[in-house]
Every structure is written in C-alpha cells, then in structure tokens.
Design a protein that fits this description.
Radius of gyration: 31 Å
Helix content: 40-55%
Bound molecules: zinc ion
Strand content: under 5%
Number of helices: 20
Largest sheet: 2 strands, antiparallel
Order of helices and strands: HEEEEHEEHHHHHHHHHHHHHHHHHH
Strand order of the largest sheet: 1-4
C-alpha cells in the first residue's frame, strides 16, 4: 500500500481492522473467551475483496515487468496484446511460451509475490496446460514448477434416498449452475451436453449415477415452462445456442472486453463480422461464435435492447407450445413438492399403475387394491374407483363444498380444473387439497390399501 501511494492514515486504518480481529467459539451455547488471530481478516470481511485487489495489483505489476526481460517469451497468442496473466476473483491464469526459461520466469515472479504477500497457490488446485509442446519439454517444465497435471474427478451424487421431486430439484440446481457459468462463457460441444443431460435424466428417474434409458416423461417436455406442462428444467442445448449468439453479439459490439479485442486482433483484423469467411485455422469455439451470426441476425432487435433478454430469445426458441388444460392446478399450487410431482405424473398418466406395468411385461396384480374389484388404470384409481370417490366426497363435505359428481375421467378433469381456476382463497385451497389427495391416494395404493383395509396386501410396482 505504501508503494501504491495510499495515505499513511488510511494504511493505519486498514492495519487496525486486520490486527484487531478476534474469534470466539460457542461452547455449550455460551460464547467462550475471545482469542486473537494472527494477522488474519475476518471470514467474509467486506474489506477482504478490496485488499485482495490491491495485493493482486502487486502481482500484476511484477508480471508486467517480465515484458522487459529478453529471455521471457510471450505465449504466441498473447504477444500482440501483451497478456501475461488473467485473474478473476481468486483464480489466476498465467501465460507464457512453452519453453523452460519463460515458464521459470513466470514462476519466479509468482514466488516473489507469494513471499511478499503471504498468499500461497494451492497446488492441488493448480494445473498446467500445454498446447503444441513436445513431451520432453513438458516434463522439464513440470519438474521445474513442481506441480502435476490434474485429472478432474466428477464426484458422484449419492443422494439416492431423495424423492423424484428432490432429485429434480438437485438436477435443476446443477443445470442452472452450468447454464449460469459455463454455458454463458463457452459453447459446449453437443456430445458433452448430451452426456450431461443423460446423467441428469437417469439420476432423476433411477436415483443412480449411471446412464439408463428409463424415463417416465420425455426430457424435452421437462425442460419447458410449467404452463405448457414442463418442470422448467434448463434445455442446455438450446441455451448453449442462445449463449453463443450472445457471444457473437458481444464480439461485434463490446470492444472494451479483452477476449473481444483478442479475437479481433488475431482473426477478424478489421473485416466485417457479417461477411468474413469463417477462419478455418481458428479454434472450434471461435468458429462457432462467428458462425452464430445467423441466429443473431434473426433476433438482433431483441438483443440490442437489453442483455437480459437473452432469456426471452431462449423462450422464443423453445417454440410455441400448447397450454395444458391442468395449468391452473400446476402453476401456483402451494402443496408440497412431492405431492405436486405425483400430481404432475398423474396428469401425464405416467404413474406405474398395474395396466402399464403389465404392458411392459412386469408381473403385477391387475386388480385395483383399493376397491378390490375393477382393474387398475389411472382413470380408474383416481376418478372411477369407489374408494377414491368416497375420499373426495368426505373431503369436500369437510371443506363445505359441493359434492363430487364425476364418474369418468373427463368429468373428473372438468371438475378439478373448474374448482382450481382463479386466485380466490377457495381456489387456492382446492389446488393444495387436490395435489395432496392425489398423492395420498397413490401412497395408499402403494401400501396395498392397508390403511383402508388394515390388511397386509403388497402393492405391485411400489414407487416413491
Ligand atoms: Zn378401485
């Protein structure tokens, strides 16, 4: 800070903040006497990011000095813009030509910084990437740096005990992470996307980390908005396309960005982005970004106005899908996630009822376990079965609503959607009650009607 010319008083303030931190541990619910720390910032101290920026400035200046070293050679694609490093939050990328001298220079520079700042690189999280460097030189460089190449490991999802709803939520989060981070920066090869999707799909339907073909509802359907019967999972393939279009637009307009300047100085070289032939010697990603011009031209009006409208384009590309008649029961239902999931499968007719199991050749008792009379189909078990009708009648009486009059599936649908429509309290209550009841009937059926009959019948195709 002294070197950067911060006033003395300001330096004292910062030191005061850093030096007076103390921690206290709660033992048996009571805070224990505080103890001081050795020159450490508080965890999550708002100052820390600013101090970090100052410290990184020191590293930047050191690395800039490298440019004067005659023996230091830039990475061949970094010379024009004089790039030696990029840093983002606590990630640091260092670039140099793949020869031992240049690598050593950059390493020295970093070590000097580590000594001065007390910051150490985490070697287990560091890796070296080579491009077009022969094996022997690679070995020498690795030895000189004292690091190893890392093999990325994908940890397996072990939360097998989650329900469909829970697993879908987990997948949703993972997909969102990929979309928000990777897919916005890079075009991801379609093969990779397909594998990611296959893992997600299999995990939802089987709870295992192994790719299977089994799925009750098509993935494309699950990746649509709720109003058209989906679960708003992210369609990575489509999102990827939109994000590349966004990159293309940035390439044409955001000349202040380093990566944009970089592509311009090495590939575009003052030509028109709309007409330039795709540079065949460029990497796949750059070719893809330039190639995205078609899509950009299609939706340029929208992109120009607002960056966040990228989501709008995504929805446009999803296409016009028909609204589902049971939208009103799905959309703002406040029932539990599990119940809503059962209801969702229920509307699609994708629950593993006996008729479906038998069709697939799975041994199952065809008779409904709740009335022990008719054959079990979705329409029977949820609309026509005497047991279910009894449940609806009693529930509606308790809610002080008109009685249940449906005796076929279409009457039942009519009844459900009419009652669930609107934002009134009665409608909201009905939506919740409907989802929970469908869920409970299904649970009861899986228990073989034991609550009703007190029997010990075991149900076929137990699920969830
Ligand atoms: Zn029945």
């Amino acid at each position: 800070m002294l070197e950067l010319g911060f006033p003395k008083r300001f330096q004292d303030w910062v030191l005061l903040c850093v030096k007076t931190v103390s921690y206290s541990i709660i033992v048996n619910g009571e805070p224990a006497p505080p103890f001081p720390t050795a020159k450490r910032l508080r965890q999550g101290d708002p100052l820390s990011s600013f101090l970090f920026a100052i410290v990184m400035e020191y590293l930047s200046r050191n690395l800039h000095r490298l440019k004067q070293e005659k023996q230091f050679k830039f990475h061949p694609r970094c010379a024009k813009l004089g790039i030696t490093h990029l840093s983002f939050a606590d990630d640091l990328l260092l670039f140099a030509r793949g020869d031992i001298l240049s690598a050593s220079y950059i390493h020295q520079c970093f070590n000097q910084f580590a000594k001065a700042s007390g910051l150490q690189a985490n070697l287990t999280k560091s890796s070296v990437y080579f491009g077009g460097v022969n094996q022997a030189v690679q070995q020498d460089i690795l030895q000189a740096l004292g690091t190893q190449r890392m093999v990325a490991r994908i940890s397996s999802w072990t939360a097998k005990k989650l329900s469909y709803a829970g697993r879908t939520q987990l997948v949703q989060t993972v997909l969102f992470g990929i979309q928000a981070y990777w897919a916005q920066l890079f075009k991801i090869p379609i093969k990779v996307l397909k594998t990611i999707e296959a893992f997600c799909r299999s995990y939802i339907w089987s709870g295992e980390n192994v790719i299977t073909k089994r799925a009750l509802v098509a993935w494309e359907r699950m990746c649509t908005p709720k109003s058209v019967g989906g679960l708003i999972l992210i369609n990575l393939k489509l999102w990827n396309k939109v994000a590349t279009a966004q990159n293309h637009w940035d390439l044409a307009h955001k000349t202040d960005k380093l990566w944009v300047r970089w592509i311009h100085s090495y590939y575009i070289k003052g030509q028109q982005l709309d007409t330039i032939p795709i540079p065949q010697h460029a990497t796949w990603m750059i070719r893809q970004i330039i190639d995205a011009r078609q899509l950009v031209n299609q939706c340029q009006v929208v992109v120009r106005r607002n960056r966040s409208l990228i989501r709008h384009i995504y929805l446009q590309l999803l296409g016009q899908l028909d609204k589902i008649p049971w939208k009103c029961v799905m959309l703002k239902n406040e029932a539990t996630a599990k119940a809503k999931y059962t209801m969702w499968l229920h509307f699609y007719g994708k629950m593993l009822t006996s008729d479906r199991l038998l069709k697939w050749g799975v041994a199952a008792d065809p008779v409904c376990v709740l009335c022990k009379w008719h054959n079990e189909t979705r329409n029977h078990i949820f609309a026509e079965c005497d047991f279910t009708r009894g449940v609806w009648v009693r529930l509606l009486a308790w809610m002080q609503r008109s009685t249940y009059k449906a005796s076929t599936w279409s009457q039942y649908m009519q009844w459900a959607t009419t009652n669930a429509k609107g934002k009134s309290q009665t409608a909201t209550r009905f939506q919740m009650m409907f989802a929970e009841t469908v869920h409970m009937i299904w649970i009861e059926r899986n228990k073989g009607g034991s609550m009703y009959y007190g029997g010990d019948a075991t149900a076929p195709g137990h699920l969830n």
